[in-house]
């Protein structure tokens, strides 16, 4: 749906984006990941035509992007911009009208979202009366009022408590199921492991990795497994013998543990289970896959070592 082709941008001779190319497919949640200052927000502002790139181009559905494509985009910026003295209803009407909706359409959409989020009693409240999390939720609603095909969210989960983080993640998953394309930009990589289909990692203005999240995790896994069990830790360690290396353990109770270990000498998951059965009571066992944050740290470390060599 969106092709970002060799975008570069500098501010006062300092590079913010250096020859960055990305492909975002229709109907996917794409994670744009990296630390603060990596260039994510600059790229998002270029896509939204707030900034102009120094070089490169952006295509949407095969067409060179122009202002007319902005009607199909919903943008939630990192800097929250709500007028504090306006009511939730008036703010939604103001932003909805800017997006070309009629007053009636805004009313219908606002009713839908307020009901869905169970916050109908906020309608007449002024923005200044809302908590930070409540205001975040209102701005999210205003971002999707015009039913955009492409949703671009810059740090959308910051400021939310864990319950509302799950609510927004669930909503994004539902939107994806309905054919929406979503770009999720964040430095909090742990929060998007489970909802992003594909991701790109940006560091110091450069793209250092792009691909399916599952493929990236598979490529960087370390052959580690975790076992949740009930019984004696001594019996567990003795059962492993020399075929497996205990890396870490977590005590859950008097006789319950989660142990993380690594295979040795060509042993596999089946061998691990055979060794433990009868020695401890296994409650769960799984392969440990790296998070996107783990992968990012590994790639940045490798780049630093290569530059220092």
Task: Please characterize this protein's 3D structure.
With 309 residues, the protein is of the alpha/beta class. The chain has two domains: 2-218, P-loop containing nucleotide triphosphate hydrolases (Rossmann fold), CATH 3.40.50; 222-288, Alpha-Beta Plaits. The chain has nine helices and 14 strands. It has helices at residues 40-47, 88-98, 103-116, 132-144, 162-177, 213-220, 233-240, 269-276, 292-308; strands spanning 2-11, 14-24, 29-33, 55-60, 63-64, 73-76, 150-154, 181-186, 198-203, 206-212, 224-230, 244-251, 256-263, 281-288. It has a six-stranded mixed beta sheet with strand order 6-7-8-3-9-10, sandwiched between helices. Helix 2 packs across helix 3 and helix 2 (88-98) packs parallel to helix 4. The model has no long low-confidence stretch (mean pLDDT 88).
Number of domains: 2
Low-confidence stretches: none
CATH class of the largest domain: Alpha Beta
Measure the end-to-end span: 40 Å
Biggest sheet architecture: 6 strands, mixed
Shape: globular
Which CATH architecture of the largest domain would you pick?
Answer: 3-Layer(aba) Sandwich
- The CATH homologous superfamily of the largest domain is termed P-loop containing nucleotide triphosphate hydrolases
- Structural class by sheet pairing and helices: alpha/beta
- On the 0-100 scale, what is the average pLDDT? 88
Order of helices and strands: EEEHEEEHHHEHEEEHEHEEHEH
Topology:
Elements: E1 2-11, E2 14-24, E3 29-33, H1 40-47, E4 55-60, E5 63-64, E6 73-76, H2 88-98, H3 103-116, H4 132-144, E7 150-154, H5 162-177, E8 181-186, E9 198-203, E10 206-212, H6 213-220, E11 224-230, H7 233-240, E12 244-251, E13 256-263, H8 269-276, E14 281-288, H9 292-308
Parallel strand pairs: 3-8, 3-9, 6-7, 7-8
Antiparallel strand pairs: 1-2, 1-4, 4-5, 9-10, 11-13, 11-14, 12-13
């Amino acid at each position: 749906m969106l092709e970002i082709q060799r975008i570069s941008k500098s501010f006062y001779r300092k590079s913010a984006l250096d020859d960055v190319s990305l492909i975002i497919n229709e109907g996917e949640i794409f994670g744009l990941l990296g630390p603060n200052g990596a260039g994510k927000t600059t790229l998002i502002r270029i896509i939204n035509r707030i900034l102009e790139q120094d070089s490169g181009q952006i295509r949407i559905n095969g067409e060179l992007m122009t202002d007319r494509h902005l009607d199909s985009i919903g943008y939630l910026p990192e800097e929250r911009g709500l007028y504090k003295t306006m009511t939730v209803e008036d703010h939604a009407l103001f932003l909805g009208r800017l997006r070309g909706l009629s007053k009636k359409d805004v009313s219908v959409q606002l009713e839908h979202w307020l009901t869905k989020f169970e916050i109908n009693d906020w309608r007449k409240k002024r923005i200044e009366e809302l908590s930070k999390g409540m205001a975040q939720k209102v701005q999210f609603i205003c971002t999707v009022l015009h039913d955009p095909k492409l949703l671009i969210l810059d740090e959308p989960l910051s400021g939310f408590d864990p319950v509302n983080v799950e609510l927004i993640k669930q909503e994004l998953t539902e939107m994806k199921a309905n054919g929406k394309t979503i770009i999720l930009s964040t430095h909090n990589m742990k929060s998007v492991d489970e909802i992003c289909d594909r991701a790109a990692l940006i560091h110091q203005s450069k793209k250092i990795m792009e691909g399916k999240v599952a493929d990236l995790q598979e490529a960087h896994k370390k052959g580690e497994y975790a076992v949740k069990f009930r019984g004696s830790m001594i019996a567990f360690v003795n059962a492993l013998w020399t075929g497996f290396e205990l890396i870490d353990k977590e005590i859950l109770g008097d006789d319950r543990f989660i142990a993380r270990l690594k295979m040795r000498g060509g042993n596999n998951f089946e061998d691990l289970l055979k060794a433990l059965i009868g020695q401890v009571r296994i409650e769960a066992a799984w392969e440990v896959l790296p998070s996107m944050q783990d992968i990012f740290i590994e790639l940045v470390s490798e780049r630093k070592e290569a530059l220092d060599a």
